[in-house]
Design goal:
Blueprint lengths: L16 E3 L6 E3 H6 L15 H8 L6 E2 L13 E2 L1 E2 H12 L5 E8 L2 E8 L10 H17 L3 E7 L7 H20 L4 E10 H4 L8 E4 L5 E2 L3 H8 L10 H6 L5 E2 L2 H15 L14 H9 L20
Parallel strand pairs: 7-8, 8-9, 9-10, 9-11, 10-12
Antiparallel strand pairs: 1-2, 3-6, 4-5, 6-7
The structure holds zinc ion (ZN).
Length: 313
């Protein structure tokens, strides 16, 4: 086969084909991107870059980004092979992003909200001082402007390069959400694959409504760490969204193709609007393009995954 010349790489940037991490099917990249990175064969939800998530969630032209000037500082002069400051510079150049979180205001089917989306492409979506600060600012802004908050989590956890400063963001983001709630604000957390470590253990789990994408890995420590610590075999589907729904840790699993509709409905309820009216506005630019060329299939409810991988930064 022609693609074998790419070697063992699962993901071939710039290549025409991509291999599904779950079922191994070869997916035509263009079609795969039009399906918003959901496998057409098994329904596996690949990690979605933050900007694509914003395009898929917000009404066209409504996203106004805020706090773009925030930059991380290498307080510890942290050095793991490559100094943290150099790593930051390289990652900024590679991703075109300043850090692992994009925040701003947007409308979802005409309903204004404060939107925060984590970017896994930036150092594994790790939460450091910039991510924490942006979430805190977003909550304060939302409280002032009386906006509901929607946070998409996608993270390997706290950013080790920032040490205790990074861990502090757990308390800080929880505190910010608590103040928002006390002022009558509403928050929705969407946990996407993977949501792990200090992000699961903080803001992603303390919002009013907890949604997840199908098959998302959601946990604190990784399954291998837990299995070796407790010396027991873990139950099937452990730390997957479906397992957590069954155990009551999350409220609902929403496939990517239905996420915007579901968010609009929940935001309508949360802000005292007519939920039916939330279905009358136009699709996003991203959705419109996708639906014109590809029919998004109904998501299979649960498919066993062959590989369970989450990159940790
Ligand atoms: Zn697949």
């Amino acid at each position: 086969m022609a693609w074998t010349r790419f070697g063992k790489k699962k993901d071939m940037p710039g290549g025409l084909w991509i291999k599904c991490e779950s079922c191994g099917a070869m997916l035509f990249r263009k079609e795969f991107e039009q399906r918003h990175r959901v496998c057409a064969t098994c329904g596996y939800h690949f990690t979605l870059p933050a900007r694509e998530r914003v395009a898929l969630t917000a009404d066209p032209g409504t996203f106004q980004e805020l706090w773009t000037e925030l930059r991380a500082v290498d307080v510890l002069q942290f050095n793991d092979r490559v100094p943290y400051s150099e790593k930051l510079t390289a990652t900024k150049a590679k991703t075109g992003e300043a850090d692992a979180m994009v925040t701003g205001t947007a409308q979802v089917k005409g309903i204004p909200c404060a939107l925060g989306v984590m970017n896994f492409q930036f150092l594994g979506g790790s939460m450091g001082m910039v991510v924490g600060e942006k979430i805190a600012l977003l909550c304060e802004f939302a409280a002032e402007q009386k906006l509901p908050v929607v946070l998409f989590a996608c993270s390997g956890g706290a950013r080790m390069h920032e040490g205790a400063v990074s861990l502090m963001q757990m308390a800080k983001t929880c505190g910010a959400l608590q103040r928002l709630h006390r002022q009558g604000g509403v928050s929705i957390s969407v946990m996407t694959h993977p949501t792990t470590g200090g992000v699961t253990a903080s803001f992603a789990s303390v919002c009013d409504l907890l949604l997840a994408e199908p098959g998302a890995l959601i946990g604190f420590a990784g399954p291998r760490v837990i299995a070796t610590t407790i010396k027991k075999e873990l139950p099937k589907g452990f730390q997957r969204a479906e397992f957590l729904l069954e155990k009551g840790q999350i409220d609902r699993i929403v496939p990517r193709a239905a996420m915007r509709d579901e968010l609009a409905r929940l935001l309508a309820y949360a802000t005292g609007r007519d939920p039916v009216a939330a279905f009358k506005s136009q699709p996003t630019a991203a959705q419109g393009a996708a639906e014109a060329e590809v029919t998004v299939p109904a998501q299979p409810a649960e498919k066993p995954r062959k590989k369970q991988k989450a990159k940790k930064e």
